[in-house]
From TrEMBL:
GO terms for molecular function: N-methyltransferase activity; protein methyltransferase activity; S-adenosylmethionine-dependent methyltransferase activity. This is SET domain-containing protein. Signal peptide: none annotated. The lineage of its organism: Eukaryota, Metazoa, Ecdysozoa, Arthropoda, Hexapoda. CDD domains: SET_SMYD. Pfam families: SET. InterPro entries: SET_dom, SET_dom_sf, SET_SmydA-8.
Amino acid sequence: MDDPFNGKCIIKCNKIIGRHLVANKDIQAGETILKEEPIIVSPLWHSEPRCANCYRETSTICKTCTIFPLCSQCSSHDQFDCTFIKNQELPVNFLVENFAVFAPLKALLYLENETTQNHHTFLEMECHTEERKRELIWESYKRTVVEPLLKHLKEAFRRTPVNEEFIQKICGIFDVNAFEIRGPDGIDCLRAIYPSAALMAHSCIANTLVSVDDSFQIKIYATRLIRKDELIHYNYTNPLLGTAERRKQLALGKYFVCECKRCADPTELGTHMSSIACLNCKKLVSPSETEQWSCANCSSTVLAHDVKELLKEMDTEIRDAAGDLRLMEMLLMRYLPRLNPSHYIIIDLKQNIASILRDICMDPMSKPGRKVLERKIQLCDDIIPVLTVVEPGISRLVAIALYEKFIPMLELARREYETAEIGDVLYLDRLYVVESILRTAIEMLLYEQVQSAEGRLLKKALREMGSLRKTISYIQNKIRNE
């Protein structure tokens, strides 16, 4: 079989992290490590019915097999799947009423199809069956996936043993290995299996990024120099969560406790994304694995349980305030005295506020006031230093934040120039600053898949760079001629 990594990395295995990838040579920042097509794509378990061909939401089904959802814009879906299911005596609404079976059913069809390859690769993927048997997820899948499949399709497949253990194994393979990817509507509503990409180990400070294009091809590229024999890893979780939340997600979904350098550091590499303010002396109190957190300055203590409940309450309030700019700003003012300014709850709240302001700034029918523009810039300035630590090197998060800072900075400079608040020289200086910000964002977005949301953002940024440089050239000539 061809080497999907082109000699850049090799597969190794140990008892701690199982199979994983190690660099077989020095890999430069931005260098592509892998491009891979998915072997199976499926909507998320809890998703509304989606078209089996394009994955848009739909309420109609295929007229041929009368089982798989198929939207009005698509005339067919996978021929083998359609023909196979057509020959089974299934209730018309079987998949619509039991949509959680979509992914396992697609996997069973993939394994049944003699024209598909590397079945053993899929079946060798980690599934943590023994651990899952002791959890509620086992009973949940038994009710929503196993029982419907065994009731209607137990005798349908010839190449695989369709029993409870095997179906649960497939569910485990998806939960442990699948990548959540965007659907055609731009939201993370799909899961895809990429056997080679799934070999990457995890780190909360990863050395790769993953980019998925509109046809679901995945690209993995290095975010910094990766030395020969160094582990290849990416971040399985949201880097903007605190350590306790990241570890909780990894333990529940991936069945391990992360011991990376960020998780091992109570200050989270100096970001203090989980630290709170001491009620007594106002200094920062970093998390502890004991039941009490202790202030290093005044020795005051706070119960870990109380912190957990406080953060839970704050998270609920933020979700309840979604879309309400005034209420979110009020919550921010209330939370800041209690949490570190770069606490993950504060960062989440600031990102929510920045998102609302972004929509205002980018609305062609809106002309945001000076305070809105300045507030947007300030929020970006607050967030970017944290992003550069938790996603070092080439960073999609930093690139997007820089682009969102560029927009109000340029607009503010233009307005001040047009109203004669600043002259040619100062305006040119301001243009140089925003050009530098936009250039850095572009340099980080260059490695994204062309046909992806980030690839389209890159095209837009390049157009704006061209326009900006024309303005700079015009002002330069004007100054020379004065």
